[in-house]
Design goal:
Layout: H1 14-17, H2 39-50, E1 55-57, H3 62-68, E2 72-74, E3 99-103, H4 113-120, E4 127-132, H5 140-151, E5 157-160, H6 168-174, E6 177-179, H7 189-196, E7 201-202
Parallel strand pairs: 1-2, 3-4, 3-6, 4-5, 6-7
Length: about 210
C-alpha cells in the first residue's frame, strides 16, 4: 500500500507539466492530450502523488510542480560528466568551409525547432547547422509536427545520424557554436555540456526561471 511507504518522486519534465492525474493533460505547446487515462488510472496516479513525503524537481519544471504540491523542493543541480565533456577532447575529423552550429536536440516544439526554422528565413549570412536526425514520436501530434519540421529543412541545415553520447564532445569541439533549447526558458544538458567544452551557446533564457 502506497500509504505505508516513504518515497520522494523526482520530476524531470512531462511527468509533472502534463501530469497523469489530470484528465487529458498536455503540454502548453501542444493541443492533443499527452495522456488519455480513465478515472481509475488517474486516481492511482493522484494517490501516488498525494502520498509522497515531498516532491523534488528543478529548472523550468518547478513552476509546474508548485501548482500541485504543497511541499515542492527546487533542486536546480544538473550533473555533467567532466571526463566526457571538457575542452581537451579532440574534435571530429570533418571538413569545415563555413561557420558551423551544432544542434544535438530532438526536432520538435519542446526544443524550439519550429522557432529556429522560422528564424532562419531572415538570416543573411552563410553558415551551416549540423542537426542530429532525431525526431519526437511521443504522441501522434508530436510525431506529425516533428515529421513536418524534418521535411521542411532550411538550406542552412544538414541532417546527420544519431551520435553516441561518448562521441558528443568531439562534435562540440569541432563546431563553432551550439544551439540549445529555444523554448522552455532554462538550460538543459546540451547547454551545460557545451559550456564544459568551452563553446558558446545560443538558447532562450526566461529570467523568471
Amino acid at each position: 500500500y502506497l500509504c505505508d511507504l516513504n518515497y520522494v518522486p523526482i520530476y524531470f519534465g512531462r511527468d509533472i507539466d502534463a501530469p497523469r492525474f489530470v484528465k487529458n493533460s498536455t503540454e502548453e505547446w501542444n493541443e492533443e492530450p499527452l495522456h488519455k487515462l480513465n478515472f481509475l488510472e488517474r486516481y492511482f496516479y493522484k494517490k501516488s502523488f498525494n502520498n509522497a513525503v515531498l516532491h523534488v524537481t528543478g529548472l523550468f519544471v518547478y513552476k509546474h510542480l508548485k501548482k500541485y504540491s504543497k511541499n515542492p523542493v527546487n533542486n536546480a543541480r544538473v550533473i555533467v560528466d567532466k571526463e566526457i565533456f571538457n575542452e581537451d577532447i579532440k574534435p571530429i575529423t570533418r571538413e569545415k568551409t563555413k561557420f558551423v552550429f551544432f544542434s544535438p536536440n530532438r526536432i520538435e516544439k519542446f526544443k524550439g525547432t519550429d522557432i529556429l526554422w522560422n528564424a532562419l528565413q531572415y538570416c543573411k549570412t552563410d553558415f551551416e547547422i549540423l542537426q542530429v536526425d532525431w525526431r519526437d514520436t511521443g504522441s501522434d501530434e508530436e510525431n506529425r509536427t516533428s515529421l513536418k519540421l524534418r521535411e521542411n529543412l532550411s538550406s542552412h541545415v544538414k541532417l546527420i545520424p544519431m551520435i553516441k553520447r561518448k562521441e558528443m564532445s568531439s562534435y562540440y569541439q569541432w563546431s563553432d557554436a551550439i544551439i540549445g533549447n529555444l523554448r522552455i526558458g532554462s538550460f538543459e544538458y546540451v547547454e551545460l555540456e557545451a559550456v564544459m567544452c568551452q563553446k558558446p551557446v545560443i538558447s532562450f533564457t526566461d529570467k523568471k526561471i
